[in-house]
Each structure stands twice: as C-alpha cells, then as structure tokens.
Write a structure and sequence with these properties.
- By secondary structure, the chain is an alpha/beta fold.
- The chain is about 35% helix and about 20% strand.
- The chain is built from 16 helices and 18 strands.
- The strands form 3 sheets. Strands 3-4-5-2-1-6-7-11-12 form a 9-stranded mixed β-sheet, sandwiched between helices. A 6-stranded parallel β-sheet has the order 15-14-13-16-17-18, sandwiched between helices.
- Helix 1 links the parallel strand 1 and strand 2.
- Helix 4 crosses helix 5.
- It starts with a strand and ends with a helix.
- The chain binds adenosine-5'-diphosphate (ADP).
- Adenosine-5'-diphosphate binds next to helix 1 and helix 11.
Length: about 475
C-alpha cells in the first residue's frame, strides 16, 4: 500500500510543534509495517535541508490564479529518516527559513495562503504525472486540507479523484480561514462546488477538507468528542461528518525519545538507574537555571498560548511560592508577548524558585524532560499532547488537566494502576491543588521511585497507532 503524507512540518526537517513529531514518526513505523509511506513537504530554506544532497525528480509549472509558477520536486538522497522524503521547491514562495512565521518580524507571512496553495498545487501536479497513483493521500491540518477539495472538484485534477483522501486534524483551532476573494486562486471548479469552500460566509480551508475527504481523523478519541462542541465554529460540521471520523492517539518515536540512548542528555539512564540518572540531570539543570535540586521541580514546555493554558501559570506559581511551598518551576517556551514578558520578569521576583528560557530549543527540551520531577500541562485544549508521553518515558510525572489526549493517556494516581496527576477544571485553585499533590508525592522517595520506574515502562510507542491507521486505510478500499 502506497501512502503519501502531505504536511508543512516533519521532524527533524522543520518543526514547530507536535505535527512535526507525528509526521516524522508515523511514516517510519508504517514502513516497518510494510507500507510504502512517503512524506511530501515544502523545501524551506533551513540548515537541515540545505545540508542534504538531493535529486531533482520532477520539474513543472502550474497556475495559481493568473500567476504561472515554476516548481521542482526534490528527493532527499539519504534514507536517514526511515522513509522517502520529497521536498516541494517553489522559488520565492516556500524557500524561506520560517515554517509559518517570518523570522525577522515574528509575524505570519503576508502570503501564507499562497504558500499553502502553491505547495498543494505543485504536489498534486507531480502526483498527476505518476503512472501508478498512490493508494492514499494523507493530509495534515488546514495547510494541506484543500487537497481533498481540489482532487474531487477541479476537472484539471480528475485523474487523482479516485484516490482516497484522509485528513488528520492535529489542531482544530486553526482553519485556514480567508477572505472569499482568495478562492479565485484555486483551479477552476464548477460553481456548484463552491459551497464546499464556504463556512459562515468566509473561505475556510479546513471545512472544505472535512467535507471532501473520504475520512477524517483526530489525534485522540476524546478530542474527536470535544470537537463536536468546541471547534472554533466548525462544531456543526464535525457533528455532521462524525460517521467518517475516527480518533487515533499519537505515539512517541522511541528512537528519538529514549533516555537510555538520547544523545542530547548529559547522562543517559533507564528504569533500573532512574533515581541516579534523574538526579544527575536535575543537578545540571538546576545549576544552569538557578534552582534548588533538593525541592521538587515542575516544568512547562510548550507554546505560550491560550490553548496550552500557560497564562494560568504565573498566578499558580506566585500563589504557591507566597504560601511558602517549597517547589521550583522552570518554563521553556515562546508565544504571546505578554506571557513571555511575565516569565522573563518572574525570576527576579521568585529567585531560586522560578526560572525560564524564552526560546525554542530542542536539546534543552530533552534535558528538561530528563531533569524535572514533574511536567505541568494545564491545557484548555489538547488534541493529543506529546509532552506528557515524553515525560512518562523520561520518568517524569505529568500533572495534566483532564482534556483531549491528556485525558486519554494519563491515569490519575487515585485510580487503579494510576500514574499521573489530573485536575478537571481550568482554574488556579485546581491547578494549585494538583501541584500540592505533586509536592506531597515527592516527599515519599520510595513511592516516587516506584512511579518513575512504572511510567518509564508504559507503552506509548507508535507501533499500535500505526496499526490503527493501517486498519482505517483498509476501510477505504
Ligand atoms: P503542539 O503541537 O500543540 O504545540 P504537542 O504537545 O503536540 O503540542 O507537541 C509539542 C512539541 O513541541 C513537543 O515535542 C515539545 O517538546 C515541543 N516544544 C514545544 N515548545 C518547545 C520549545 N520552546 N522548545 C523545544 N521544544 C518545544
């Protein structure tokens, strides 16, 4: 079975968040299952891509509105990722450093829609040239969600219309929502098809993909349920399309995320020497970040945005420290400027108890998973969440709000076979109580070590999820 994944992110080529981790891992595990799984993504102008040798496998041109643009398809020659990686090169559009944001201004690109569309059109033009067409086009998020529309609605792409399309929603908050005028950039389609592009009077790429794809998946079962009543305006549509929608929880790539072999860690460890391994990692981290290794350490890693609930943390942290709790906090993330500023100012106010690193740093994130006692995820919305699974693998106990994939992957300590700390409602009081439970747990060294050993052995690998995707693909035949 030949699967083509189309995505704007793929780890380690270009990563902004969990989408990259999924697209960098799922195809590899699909290959191991015997599927011929490829990834097609933009050729960004970044160091990873520029340092690889490539073969130009296709050259073409096509129209985007009245603009004729040239493109090339590059195959990365080394098979280091475990699957074939194809890069869509659209000079002047895609060959920039940032994935979504301009590296200089920090804002989204002025022509973001044209970037998404030129990528999709070029990829489809190339696929049209295949004598043997793929068995599934697997699209990820709104950046590629016009593909199910284009192949079924636009006569120019009729030779691809029989290929089943799967759309995975990694994040239903972002829709690729534009002014209706942007529809003129799409290839010609019959007027009767235009309704598929319309949601609430605007051009909505995700809604078109949801309606036109053969199958919709989300990255956890709970998130699929939650989208029925909270999808940033698409609730009714997701209810209507529920019959073809499925939730499959993501896995983690244990080739990358394994404290035994992780080259980014100062000291490797496994379940048998977790206590010593984590202690050594914690000491290094605490020295780097002016924190006390003797007290429990709670970290947050992620985008500093409302979805992640990071805005609740300043109040929770202040409240706990001012009440005299002995607990340290570390934040790694970038996002809303006001939150970044808060986290930059707080170390001088809470010296010794709080520190932050306002940047995106993959290596540091691994070191924090290893060196922390707890990871906190107070998310408002969490389609799947990977951090909690990485934390488990590194023997770090997750403190999570019961939402989406967090609910599906973390069992509270009060439940039978529980191993994490969960709270239900998004408020300072509940988040604070959850951290207090963590502080209490930390006091019992024996219990803490038992839990660490237990969580490191939990199986959240991709094997199971890759099999679930395979079963879904078979339904499409
Ligand atoms: P989302 O995709 O919504 O941001 P996920 O939990 O699915 O959230 O995935 C987040 C991924 O991004 C994880 O691999 C996490 O470690 C990583 N990450 C987020 N922010 C940072 C950061 N500032 N530095 C390093 N890694 C980060």
């Amino acid at each position: 079975m030949h699967i083509v994944h189309l995505s704007f992110e793929c780890y380690p080529v270009a990563k902004v968040g969990g989408l990259a981790d999924v697209v960098g891992a799922l195809p590899k595990y699909q290959q191991q299952l015997g599927l011929n799984s490829w990834v097609v993504m933009p050729r960004f102008n970044n160091d990873w891509i520029n340092s690889r040798s490539i073969e130009v496998v296709h050259k073409g041109s096509t129209f985007m509105g009245s603009e004729l643009f040239q493109f090339e398809i590059h195959l990365v020659e080394s098979n280091e990722l475990g699957f074939p990686l194809y890069l869509v090169h659209v000079p002047g559009r895609l060959d920039r450093k940032g994935v979504y944001l301009d590296e200089h201004s920090g804002y989204g690109y002025w022509d973001e829609f044209e970037r998404y569309l030129s990528f999709q059109l070029a990829a489809l033009q190339w696929l049209k040239s295949f004598e043997e067409k793929p068995d599934v086009l697997h699209c990820h998020d709104h950046h590629t969600s016009l593909i199910p529309y284009i192949v079924t609605a636009c006569p120019e792409y009729i030779t691809l219309s029989h290929i089943p399309t799967v759309l995975t929603i990694h994040n239903g908050e972002y829709h690729g929502n534009y002014d209706w005028g942007k529809t003129t950039l799409l290839p010609f389609s019959d007027f009767g098809q235009h309704g598929y592009l319309n949601w609430g009077g605007r051009f909505n790429s995700l809604s078109a993909g949801i309606r036109k794809s053969w199958m919709v998946t989300t990255v956890s079962e709970s998130y699929l349920e939650e989208l029925q009543y909270s999808a940033n305006g698409l609730e009714m549509l997701l209810q209507a399309e529920k019959g073809k929608s499925y939730g499959i929880i993501n896995g983690i790539d244990t080739d990358v995320w394994n404290p035994k072999t992780d080259e980014m860690l100062p000291k490797n460890y496994g379940a048998t020497n977790v206590t010593a391994g984590k202690r050594a990692s914690k000491e290094i981290l605490c020295e780097q970040f002016n924190l006390n290794p003797e007290i429990p350490m709670v970290s947050f890693i992620g985008r500093l945005v409302k979805e992640k609930g990071a805005d609740i943390l300043p109040d929770v942290i202040r409240s706990l420290i001012y009440k005299g709790y002995k607990v340290g906090f570390l934040i790694l993330g970038t996002g809303d400027p006001w939150l970044q500023n808060q986290f930059k100012e707080m170390p001088s106010e809470l010296t010794g108890y709080f520190d932050s690193s306002i940047q995106y740093n993959e290596t540091l994130s691994h070191q924090i998973y290893a060196g922390s006692d707890f990871i906190i995820m107070p998310s408002r919305v969490e389609p799947c969440g990977l951090n909690q699974m990485y934390a488990l693998k590194y023997g770090t106990v997750p403190i999570v709000r019961s939402v989406g994939g967090l609910k599906d992957s973390i069992k509270d300590l009060s439940e039978e076979n529980g191993y994490g700390i969960r709270f239900d409602n998004f408020n300072v009081h509940e988040a604070e109580s959850a951290v207090i439970r963590a502080i209490e747990l930390f006091k019992s060294k024996k219990r803490m070590n038992q839990i660490r050993k237990k969580i490191m052995k939990l199986d959240f690998s991709w094997e199971n999820s890759a099999k679930n995707y395979y079963q879904l693909y078979q339904k499409l035949k």
